[in-house]
Amino acid sequence: MADFNKKRVVITGLGAVTPLGNTLSDYWEGLISGRNGIDVITAFDASKHACRIAGEVKGFDPLDYVDRKDAKRMDRFAQFAVAASQQAIEDAQFQITDLNAEQVGVMIGTGVGGIKVLEDQQEIYLSRGPSRCSPFMVPMMIANMAAGLTAIHLGAKGPNSCPVTACAAGSNAIGDAFRLVQQGYAQAMVAGGTEAAITPLAVAGFASARALSTRNDDPAHASRPFDRDRDGFVMGEGCGVLLLEELEHALSRGAKIYAEIVGYGMTCDAYHMTAPVPGGEGAARSIQLALKDAGLQPQDINYINAHGTSTPANDPTETEAIKRALGDRAYEIAVSSTKSMTGHLLGGSGGIEGVATVMAVANDQVPPTINLENPDSGCDLDYVPNQSRALKVDVALSNSFGFGGHNVTLAFQKFSR
């Protein structure tokens, strides 16, 4: 039975599989050092593609988390989710048992799902016939399987779902999980976003839409949010997961607390299939709704982890949205795009960027926007160029915007009793 006396919700565990490293510590160290995670694509022969660079996860072994039989029956996006979720549970020293399993849920979003297995099976179908297609094709490719397989792996029997809201999916998952714990439907939620779409068809599709950078001869400088010389985003892959826990439950077991999640705003542009509404009206409302939900004012905000895709459409529009939502305070807030280092994880981006935002609050350290050499004339905020910054971060926001006009903002706050 839900309890509508709103409960406080804290983050007690984090997990990350990213182009900067496959653990939380490696990912955070990479962000703070301004390390580039983008290079030439190795997952397939991209020599005929217009874009031949991406932020690939390197050195990941699913057998560190599941046995060989299970790994073969999981697409890469689901493997990432299981790995990052197990990391988050272990980081929190959280035990899922028969006594609490029904109170622990999983909410993991994705934009694309198992596109690699779909491409592979289509090739088998065309070359060898329909009878040779794998019986595991459908359960491997469907988007909800990251959340479902994670629950199976962890034994989590509580609420389980999968937002599929393009590049806002990971943040929607965290926000929806926040609501479930806040309203008493679960004691804890494993929440985040995952993606593994660096495949021939996906790269070709985004490139045909002229969304991707073609700076193939200089991958280290290809993702350059807010810079006038940007020419598109760079695809990335990976997963970021937060363990959200009801405060009193966390305190009762002596859990360490990274931060508190206090606000969730989501809106729709209702404007265009892929382009943001001019002026950023929808994104601005998302920011304002997150602040209203949290009971915060613009002057309370210290840092914003921007959606910051390195595209001509997003960067100035998001800048306008931040100014529209926060007024003059916008010029005093540190804003950075960690996509400059990881690339754009599509539905997984809100997951790893949620992790980065929580770490900024916990460590009073703000990641940089690397490759910002010549700011675009329409991008005039403090984007923390090229070097991380020590900064007291009491409140931070994380923005995610997706095709279809989806806008999500999450608000995190330094925990105090």
TrEMBL record:
Pathway: Lipid metabolism; fatty acid biosynthesis. SUPFAM superfamilies: Thiolase-like. It comes from Almyronema epifaneia S1. This is 3-oxoacyl-[acyl-carrier-protein] synthase 2. One of its GO terms (molecular function) is 3-oxoacyl-[acyl-carrier-protein] synthase activity. CDD domains: KAS_I_II. Pfam families: ketoacyl-synt, Ketoacyl-synt_C. Its EC number is 2.3.1.179. The keyword Acetylation does not apply. Involved in the type II fatty acid elongation cycle. Catalyzes the elongation of a wide range of acyl-ACP by the addition of two carbons from malonyl-ACP to an acyl acceptor. Can efficiently catalyze the conversion of palmitoleoyl-ACP (cis-hexadec-9-enoyl-ACP) to cis-vaccenoyl-ACP (cis-octadec-11-enoyl-ACP), an essential step in the thermal regulation of fatty acid composition.
